[in-house]
Amino acid sequence: MAPVSRTHGSWRLAGALVAAWLVVTGASASAQATKEDLTIYVNEITTWTPGYAMGDIVLGSPATAGYEPTNARRQLMLRGKKPGRTTLSVWDQKKVLRHEINLIVTTREAETVEADLKALLAPYPNVQISRLAGSLVLTGTVATSAELAAVNNIARVAKAQTAVTLIAPAAPVGARTGPVTSTGGTTTAPVTSAPGPGATAPAAAPTIVEYELELFEASTQFKTGDYGRGVEPSGRSLYKGTIRAAVGEEGTLFIGGAAMDPKAAQSAKGKNQPAAPTQETGIRLTLRPQPGRAGLVTGVEVETNVPITYDLYDPEVWRRSRYTFNTVEGVPFAVSGNDLLAAPNLVDRRGNPIRSVSGKASTASRLPGPQRTGLQFVPVFGSLLGSNSYKAKTTQLLVVFRPTLTTGEPQP
């Protein structure tokens, strides 16, 4: 009987060992896979080391990224193909799922823009940066219309989408608001009592915008979007002035004047004759502040006949262009480059187009308006048009506007 007892004891021990092995194996097989985010870059190789020999690898979107196992499948070489997101699942060689990776594919430039954007949005703690289909999106809330306009301006410079909303202002201290009721099809608006003593009245909306402006001959490398990054233009200041406009109306300023040769004017005066009339040359700026969906906006209309092509200048040819800018007190915006210059007149006096370079040169002397020697006498622009740097297109025109919001009465 003893041998039989030992045999049953051996089976019981073996069964216990098998059960323990199944428990351990089942626990390891059902262990949670490690989840993590991993950022890689377009057209760059990133090496990822999981810490074990890999088995199966599944990539969600091969069009977004690619991979190649190396070092006896203990390392993975990842390469971004286009900005976006995809998933990467990795099993070990025992067929246990070990990693589930959220793979973020971006570019170095986009990463720099996002870092700069975070720094600029630091004063607005309730605004967050997210990504949707590879694009930057701003979400969250701000407390005032001025903050909303500033965030929208930052988003425009960064070329980001924005879903930031304005929190509805709380009722003034001491005010009581009744509910909205409807009786017989007639809706009654909420009834708000006057604030009690010591309550703070809501700030009045701005009624006047005063724009300080400066005309520069600036470097061609400067871009007006640099204002969002705190960069100021360098160059030669040609003119400073102010445009004042009531909200809902417009203000206008003309920079420039008639090209008049002092010698010709003096000669006409000596002969007791009126000076020959000449066409004014310059830039006319019209600004229209208006309420917008996200705060105050300014419509800017530019009319210019400042020559873009010096030899073919025709003062009768004007270029008109229009723009819209978010308007926040102290936050500058600008118009630059060819937007401030007139297109050349490329037709002869009979209306025929001038097709060849030689044709342009031979016809230049017959086009109306002041010739090469006359443009140097245009107010404000005379020294610019005679500048070799400007002729060589190594500088550009730039008008910078800095708005100030007030609640004063419009000046006549």
Provide a compact summary of the structure:
By secondary structure, the chain is of the alpha+beta class. Helices cover 19% and strands 37% of the residues. A 4-stranded mixed sheet has the order 1-7-6-3. Strands 8, 9, 10 and 11 form a 4-stranded mixed sheet that branches.
Describe this structure in words.
By secondary structure, the protein is an alpha+beta fold. The chain folds into three domains: about 35-105, Immunoglobulin-like; about 110-165, Histidine-containing Protein, Chain: A; about 210-405, no CATH class. The protein has helices spanning about 1-30, 110-120, 145-160, 260-270, 355-365, 380-385, 390, and strands spanning about 35-40, 45-50, 55-60, 65-70, 75-80, 85-90, 95-105, 125-130, 135-140, 160, 165, 180-185, 185-190, 210-220, 235-245, 250-260, 280-290, 295-305, 320-325, 335, 395-405. The protein has a four-stranded mixed beta sheet with strand order 1-7-6-3. The longest helix is centred in the N-terminal third of the chain and has 28 residues, at about 1-30. The model is unreliable at about 25-30, about 170-195 and about 355-375 (pLDDT under 50).
